[in-house]
């Protein structure tokens, strides 16, 4: 009961602060930044930066490698990385995600970039997360609702959503899809939350008349939602496909009523590290003003985001035009004049889907600087060659020639892992 009361109080607080500071988010961030700095005296890594005169630019810029290397020093719960990892890995093996360390939930990121991340969440932080989900993603209602949530690993963080009016139902990504379809048909969820790769499978099952659900809201998470996938899912389910941008580092962004992603700038400081000459694409540098058990300050993500100037919804929070992928998905080549050339994954995505309207799925993997492996799913046998020609035309724009193509017979995706259609595996 105490936990439910905390959720309610945080929900009321979130709504009041969002209304009160709706036109003055910078003031709210300053107040929260001062509060965070006072708490940082408990962190061995950050205590020297808890001085009142320190501004955000005085803090070190870190990434996942630095974050994990200093896990013991950054967190304020006195939890050792080895103990947290032991608990999280055991939970994944046993598929039992309820154990905690001194009341602190331990989670494990998917680690598709090769380095797994460990996150901590106190009871207060879990309550705040639930309040934010209710306020911005799921929506508050007094009517009984079922939520179907597809995850690779369950967590106390997610299970905290359960209540008399909201039933959270964990669907394990490692279980075969036919089992999910049967369970979904019985559950009849009001809200469906899943990765684009899973939503695509469910959409296909819907078209085949195997899946019979009518959720009032569908939310895409964890993977890149490409425009063509979004359009297909919108058509099949006949509704806006919402998104949540969340990772080990926290709840970062959510979609407004128009389906545009907005950063949670009422409790996040967002710095942009531009990675292109046009200053459109950037890596977000995140400071979470509410995370205290495990401070996230000036943490650079390797996600590739494109900014959007504004949104018709009227929100003052920074809009995101697209999440393209990660920096390690950028393909690298050597041009004919011996220059190193980097090309963003979105350029290849466009080249492939525009090559032939019959293409329904694809995977492009770079094995070395002059070898690309391509999978094309299509009703036409000509689509593969059309896609190859389109990619070659793109490469020629950068004076890149003599790239070899290898035909892949499947999309090279393991169920339970994040779907990455464009990948750089050049070691």
Keywords:
427 residues; alpha/beta; Rossmann fold; GMP Synthetase, Chain A, domain 3; 2 domains; 12-stranded mixed β-sheet; 12 helices; globular
Query: CATH superfamily of the largest domain, called what?
Result: ANL, N-terminal domain
Q: What share of residues are in beta strands?
A: 25-35%
Uncertain regions spanning at least 5 consecutive residues: none
Briefly note the structural class of the backbone: alpha/beta
Report on the biggest sheet: 12 strands, mixed
Rg, Cα atoms, Å: 22 Å
Secondary structure: number of strands: 20
Measured between the Cα atoms of the first and last residue, the distance is 52 Å
Name given to the CATH architecture of the largest domain? 3-Layer(aba) Sandwich
Which fold name is given in CATH as the topology of the largest domain? Rossmann fold
User: With helices defined by DSSP (H or I, 4 residues minimum), what is the helix count?
Assistant: 12
- What is the general shape? globular
Tell me the count of domains.
Answer: 2
